[in-house]
Design goal:
Elements lengths: L2 E2 L2 E3 L2 E3 L5 E5 L7 E6 L3 H18 L5 H14 L1 H12 L3 H21 L7 E2 L6 E9 L2 E5 L7 H12 L3 E5 L5 H14 L6 E3 L4 H8 L6 E5 L2 H14 L2 E5 L4 E5 L5 H13 L9 E7 L3 H13 L19 H10 L6 E4 L17 E4 L6 H4 L6 E7 L2 H9 L6 E5 L3 H10 L4 E4 L19 E2 L8 H5 E9 L1
Parallel strand pairs: 1-5, 8-9, 8-11, 9-10, 11-12, 13-14, 13-18, 14-17, 16-17, 18-19
Antiparallel strand pairs: 2-3, 4-5, 6-7, 7-21, 12-20, 15-16
Bound molecules: NADP nicotinamide-adenine-dinucleotide phosphate.
Length: about 475
C-alpha cells in the first residue's frame, strides 16, 4: 500500500511545491511505497524560517530530555510499521530493519541523558579575583543531509544530539527514503516536540543544495558519498558554516594463518554480503595470508551460501536487492571486464526475482591492488580478495586506499593485533570482529577520505553541535 510522504514544517505536514516523486520497493518494483512532491526553494526557506523561529524557545528548554525520551517511546510504539517501511523502501531485509528501529530508540534514550549533562567547565584563571568558565551553546538551525541506507538511524543519530544540545533541525532525507522520514516526523509530533524544532524537506540533491546554501542554516551534518560530501564541504567553507561529512569506505579484513577461520569466514560473509553490501562499513576487501587462502575461501563460499536472498519482508532474508536500477547499472558497468571469480552466490531465477534490482554476491581474486574492484567503493555485494605473505604486507595493502573507515584483523596473536592497532589507518578498528556495526554511545567516523569534521554519536557529537564561549567574571 502506497502512502503520501509530505514535508514537515512548523510541526505540521505540508505538500511540497516542487516536482512529483514516487518510491518503489527495490525488491519488487510493482509495490509503490510512497509518493509526494519535493520541496521547492520557497518550501526550503519556510522550513529554515520555522527552525529559526523555534530556536529561542528550544535552546534552553528544560524539558528537552523528557521530550527525547518521549520521541524514543513514539518510535517504539510504531516499530513494526517502521521496520516494514524500511524494508520496502530501501530493500533492507526485515531482520536488519527491525534492528535499525531498535537502535533508533536507543539513540533517543541515550541523547535524552546527554541533554542534562554539564554544558561547560570551570577553568583556573590568571588572577585570584577571577572566576573563569566555559559555556556550550547550540549553533542554531542545523541542516541534516542523510543517505538512504539507514533511513531511520542516521537521521536520528544526527537529530537527537542536535536537539539534545539545543539546536533546531531541518532534515533532508534521501529521495529514496521519503516514507520513513515522513513517519519519523509524525513520531516527533506524537512525542510533543514543539513546532519548528524538527522539520523535514523532501526531495533530491537540488533540495539539499538549496538547504545548505540557505543563510539561516548555521551547521551542516552530511552523510553520503565522497563526491557529494566534497561539494557540501565547499559550500560550508564558502559560508563559514560548521560542516561535518561522513562518507564512503573500502573496508578491509585481514586474515592471518593462526586465525579462527570459521569465525573469519562467517563475519566476512556477513560484513560483505548482508543487505547486499550497502553499508558504509561493509567489508569490500579481504587480505588473506597465502598459507590459509584456500581453506578461508572454501569456508567463505560456504558461509555465503548460508545467507539467503529474499524478498525483503521475508524473515529469513539476509541479502536484499540493490537500492535502484541506477545502482544495479552502475555496478554492472564497473564489473564489465571482471577479474577472476573466487566464488559467486547466484540469485534464483524467475518470480519474484525478475521484479527487483538483484545483484549476485561475488568474490574476486585480485592480483593488482590498483584494480578498480579493490579501489572503488562499489556499494554492492562484491568482495575483492587479495593475498599477502606477511603482516606488514597485509597492513600495507589494507592501508592502500583513499578511504579509512573500518577494518578488522583475524588472529590469535596478541603482538600482531597490537601492531595492527598501531598501524592501520581507519577510525573503526576491530580485532576478530565484523567491520560493520557500532554502539550508538561510542564515537563513529573514519580517517583519510572517509570523514571530515568531528565525530558523530556518543559524547563526541557535542563537539559538532555546540559552540564554546569562555567567560571571565572579576569580582
Ligand atoms: P549520496 O548520493 O551522496 O546522497 C546523500 C544525500 O545527499 C542524499 O540525501 C542526497 O540527496 C543528498 N545530495 C545529493 N547531492 C547533493 C547536493 N549537491 N547538495 C546537498 N545534498 C545533496 O549518498 P547515498 O547514495 O544516499 O548513500 C550512499 C553513500 O553514503 C555511500 O558512499 C556510503 O558509504 C555513504 N555512507 C556513509 C556513512 C558513514 O557514516 N560514513 C553511513 C552511511 C552511508 P538524494 O539522494 O535525494 O539525491
Amino acid at each position: 500500500m502506497s502512502m503520501t510522504a509530505p514535508l514537515h514544517i512548523a510541526g505540521a505536514p505540508r505538500a511540497g511545491h516542487g516536482s512529483a516523486f514516487e518510491r518503489r520497493n527495490p525488491s519488487d518494483v510493482r509495490d509503490v511505497v510512497a509518493a509526494g512532491h519535493a520541496a521547492s526553494a520557497d518550501d526550503v526557506a519556510a522550513a529554515v524560517d520555522a527552525a529559526a523561529s523555534a530556536v529561542p524557545g528550544w535552546r534552553r528548554a528544560p524539558g528537552r530530555a523528557a521530550l527525547l525520551h518521549a520521541w524514543g517511546d513514539a518510535i517504539a510504539a510504531r516499530s513494526e510499521e517502521l521496520a516494514q517501511l524500511i524494508a520496502r523502501e530501501v530493500g533492507k531485509p526485515i531482520g536488519e530493519a527491525r534492528g535499525e528501529v531498535g537502535r533508533a530508540v536507543v539513540i533517543c534514550r541515550y541523547y535524552a541523558g546527554e541533554a542534562v549533562r554539564e554544558i561547560g567547565e570551570v577553568i583556573p584563571a590568571g588572577s585570584p579575583e577571577t572566576t573563569q568558565f566555559t559555556l556550550r551553546d547550540p549553533l542554531g538551525p542545523v541542516a541534516l543531509i542523510t543517505p538512504w541506507n539507514f533511513p531511520l538511524a542516521i537521521p536520528l543519530w544526527k537529530a537527537a544530539p542536535a536537539l539534545a544540545f539545543g539546536n533546531t533541525v531541518i532534515l533532508k532525507p534521501s529521495e529514496m527514503a521519503p516514507a520513513v522520514a515522513a513517519v519519523l516526523a509524525e513520531t516527533s509530533v506524537a512525542a510533543g516536540l514543539p513546532a519548528g524544532v524538527f522539520n523535514v524537506v523532501q526531495g533530491a540533491g537540488e533540495t539539499g543544495a538549496a538547504l545548505v546554501a540557505h543563510d539561516g542554516v548555521r551547521g551542516i551534518s552530511f552523510t553520503g558519498s565522497a563526491a557529494v560530501g566534497a561539494r557540501i564541504q565547499a559550500e560550508g567553507a564558502r559560508r563559514n558554516v560548521r560542516t561535518q561529512a561522513e562518507m564512503g569506505g573500502k573496508n578491509v579484513v585481514i586474515v592471518l594463518p593462526d586465525a579462527d577461520l570459521d569465525l573469519a569466514a562467517r563475519l566476512t560473509a556477513a560484513g560483505a554480503f548482508r543487505f547486499a553490501g550497502q553499508k558504509c562499513t561493509a567489508t569490500s576487501r579481504a587480505v588473506v595470508h597465502h598459507e590459509v587462502m584456500a581453506p578461508f575461501l572454501e569456508r567463505l563460499a560456504e558461509a555465503t551460501r548460508g545467507l539467503p536472498h529474499g524478498p525483503v519482508t521475508d524473515p529469513g532474508a539476509a541479502i536484499g536487492p540493490l537500492v535502484s536500477a541506477a545502482a544495479l547499472e552502475r555496478v554492472q558497468g564497473a564489473l564489465a571486464s571482471p577479474p577472476p571469480v573466487a566464488f559467486e552466490h547466484p540469485v534464483p531465477a524467475g518470480e519474484p526475482w525478475s521484479h527487483g534490482h538483484w545483484c549476485a554476491p561475488v568474490a574476486y581474486r585480485i592480483e593488482d591492488p590498483a584494480h578498480p574492484v579493490a579501489r572503488d567503493e562499489l556499494f554492492a555485494p562484491v568482495l575483492a580478495v587479495l593475498e599477502a605473505g606477511t603482516l606488514d604486507e597485509a597492513i600495507g595493502l589494507a592501508n592502500d586506499t583513499r578511504y579509512g573507515l573500518s577494518a578488522s584483523l583475524f588472529t590469535r596473536d596478541l603482538v600482531a593485533a597490537f601492531r595492527y592497532v598501531r598501524e592501520i589507518e581507519v577510525g573503526l578498528v576491530r580485532v576478530n570482529g565484523d567491520t560493520t556495526g557500532v554502539d550508538p554511545h561510542a564515537p563513529f567516523g573514519g580517517l583519510k577520505g572517509s570523514s571530515s569534521g568531528s565525530r558523530e554519536q556518543g559524547r563526541a557529537a557535542r563537539e559538532f553541535y555546540t559552540d564554546i564561549r569562555t567567560i571571565q567574571i572579576h569580582a
